[in-house]
Design a protein that fits this description.
By secondary structure, this protein is an alpha+beta fold. Helices cover 55% and strands 7% of the residues. Strand 4 (156-162), helix 6 and strand 5 (191-192) form a beta-alpha-beta unit. It comes from Paraconexibacter sp. AEG42_29.
């Protein structure tokens, strides 16, 4: 006897269809929730966290393959004034207009995100510095020639940095931010590629013709000790901002930046077992470590036009009350650049993980800076640095713990 095909209950069929529909709706909602969590609502670019995650993955691939990568950061010129005059919605519209143009000049493989209130960042895989500079330049040119909002033209400044072997994303962002600062100070609506350009006169300007030597020294420091190299680059961004906040001339700001980059260069002469010791140094080792500012000065004085920078490096560990080293200078006898770098250097060291201790929370580090103002640190420098750190924290900068 032939069996009839099994006839499924119509109610069961309907229930199965409803379950399938519900599962599909859940899948769509989950997808939308994930997209919302990783996309900035104003620009539809990656959020800061999503950008960093994607960029870290790409840099890990770059380190394995040895291929180049370049990053540039973009800042809207006059963004704060725009917000103040027309409200935050106008600022978001301007930022969205810039983001739309940014998508036009980048590739699908590029990683593009909003990394601050008025800052966008782009990581360009398989791209060397000239290619990254060209891409940033296209964006600046497009915006310079178009009126994208009812409020008139929108211009941007851009800072470019090429990834170096062994460097972290934080160091790359820091170098790009330094370049961005130069572009803004030069008047905005331009690109700075992070290269120190040649020019005359050590005392009138710091456009050093030996920039390639400076770069080689910085790379040497990184290769010798990755923490020290990346630490120096983070100190650069903070020190330049403090110097600018104190009203230093642009030529002096450049010198402070160079000294901050190379303030630990004397450590190339310190033995590895001391430099990389996973514990606190004993008194004899500490005495040897204290020689690095003097060694650094000797190295830098051998480069024409670097005398002022060398002096800043020598006195970077002098305390405001005269208790520092190597010469026990105090107060205004210490070069202002040295006083700035000491405060920035100390903050970054306190908020960094080391083999022998965990990092200090940002709030505790700020308290320590304030506590030591007038003894270890110049009070005026301390006040300026705390202001800079507050601004960096508000903008979500990776420089602030």
């Amino acid at each position: 006897m032939r069996r009839r095909p099994f006839a499924e209950d119509p109610e069961l069929i309907s229930l199965r269809a409803q379950l399938a529909d519900a599962n599909e709706r859940i899948r769509v909602l989950e997808s939308e929730r994930t997209a919302t969590a990783t996309r900035d609502p104003a620009t539809q670019l990656l959020t800061r966290g999503a950008f960093r995650e994607a960029a870290e993955r790409e840099l890990a691939r770059t380190r394995r393959s040895g291929s180049p990568a370049t990053l540039f950061v973009v800042d809207l010129d006059g963004f704060r004034e725009l917000n103040a005059a027309h409200g935050s919605e106008a600022g978001d519209r301007a930022l969205a207009a810039v983001a739309a143009q940014l998508r036009e000049v980048t590739r699908t493989s590029d990683i593009v995100g909003r990394t601050g209130p008025d800052e966008l960042a782009v990581l360009l895989p398989d791209t060397a510095l000239p290619g990254g500079t060209l891409c940033a330049g296209r964006l600046v040119d497009r915006l310079d020639k178009a009126e994208l909002t009812a409020l008139g033209p929108v211009t941007v400044s851009a800072g470019v940095a090429e990834h170096r072997r062994g460097h972290s994303l934080e160091a790359l962002l820091s170098r790009a931010s330094v370049s961005l600062d130069r572009a803004r100070r030069a008047g905005g609506a331009r690109v700075d590629d992070g290269v120190l350009h040649a020019g005359p006169g050590d005392e009138e300007s710091f456009h050093n013709p030996h920039a390639d030597v400076i770069e080689a020294l910085a790379v040497t420091l990184l290769e010798r000790d990755r923490y020290t190299g990346e630490h120096s680059e983070s100190v650069v961004a903070m020190a330049r901002s403090v110097a600018r906040g104190l009203g230093m001339p642009s030529s002096d700001i450049e010198r402070v930046g160079a000294a901050a980059l190379l303030h630990d260069i004397g450590k190339v002469a310190i033995p590895d077992h001391i430099l990389n010791k996973p514990a606190k140094l004993d008194p004899q080792e500490w005495e040897l470590m204290r020689e690095h500012p003097v060694i650094g000065e000797r190295i830098l004085r051998a480069i024409p036009g670097m005398g002022t920078v060398a002096r800043i490096v020598r006195h970077e560990h002098e305390s405001f009350d005269g208790s520092g080293y190597p010469d026990g200078l105090s107060g205004d006898a210490i070069p202002l650049g040295s006083r700035i770098i000491l405060a920035c250097d100390t903050y970054h060291a306190m908020t960094s993980d080391r083999p022998y201790r965990a990092r200090m929370p940002h709030a505790d580090a700020i308290h320590e800076l304030a506590r030591c103002a007038g003894t270890q640190f110049d009070p005026r420098v301390t006040e300026a640095l705390i202001g800079v750190l507050h601004g960096l924290r508000q903008s979500g900068s990776p420089l602030v713990a």
